[in-house]
Amino acid sequence: MRRLLTVLLLACAAVGFALPAQAHNVLVGSDPKDGATLSASPAGVTLVFDQAVRQGYAQVGVTGADGSSWADGAAEVSAERVSVKVKPLPAGGSYVVGYRILSSDGHPVTGKISFSLAASATGVSAGQVRQGDSAEAAEAAANGGAGMAVVWIVAALLLLAAGTAVALRRAAPAPAPSSEAEGDAEARPAEGTRA
């Protein structure tokens, strides 16, 4: 009976982990818009989500086609908006904005949008290409930081496995009493009946 109860509790916990996944933040808009071609270099990028984003965990990268990083500073969170400043971009380029935020339900959300700058764009850099902070940052921006989602999934699976092991260990049957203990128990009542 204990094992059945343990299995039922673990199944309920697994369903409980799956249900909040439906409440993750969703990107509902951006400035610049996904796929837009701009006539001027933007001063920044703003991502708009359907719910407030948790403070302190947002990361936004702006990456050029050659892997160069154009984000200028850390991402700033204001309720459902996440923004990052952008260095002056070279005209005629394509750019990917990769993001990683912590959803209001505590789960990480990653994704990306893209935009391009027209060859005749204004407010652009003087052609100097700035290299990214690192190859890892450029890759994370390009793929939306999908590696972090894998880390969260592996951690959840390890936690579930540890909980199952503990539950099964506690549910193991107790060892049967030894024959010596039974002999002592039988001897005591016999001595009491003699008196």
Walkthrough of the structure:
The protein has 195 residues and is of the alpha+beta class. About 12% of the residues have low confidence.
Main traits of this protein?
195 residues, alpha+beta, 4-stranded mixed sheet, 4 helices, 8 strands, elongated
Please give a quick description of this structure:
The chain is 34% helix and 31% strand. Helix 1 (2-18) runs antiparallel to helix 3 (146-170).
Q: Radius of gyration in whole Å, from Cα? A: 29 Å
**Parts with pLDDT < 50 across at least 5 consecutive residues:** 18-22, 128-146
Category by helix and strand content: alpha+beta
Q: Which bin fits the share of residues in helices?
A: 25-40%
Global outline: elongated
How many E-type strands?
A: 8
User: H/E series, N to C?
Assistant: HEEEEEEEEHHH
The DSSP helix count reads 4
- Give the mean pLDDT: 76
Strand content: 25-35%
Topology record:
Elements: H1 2-18, E1 27-31, E2 36-40, E3 44-49, E4 59-64, E5 71-78, E6 81-86, E7 94-102, E8 108-122, H2 135-143, H3 146-170, H4 179-194
Parallel strand pairs: 2-8
Antiparallel strand pairs: 1-3, 3-6, 4-7, 5-6, 7-8
Helix pairs in contact: 1-3
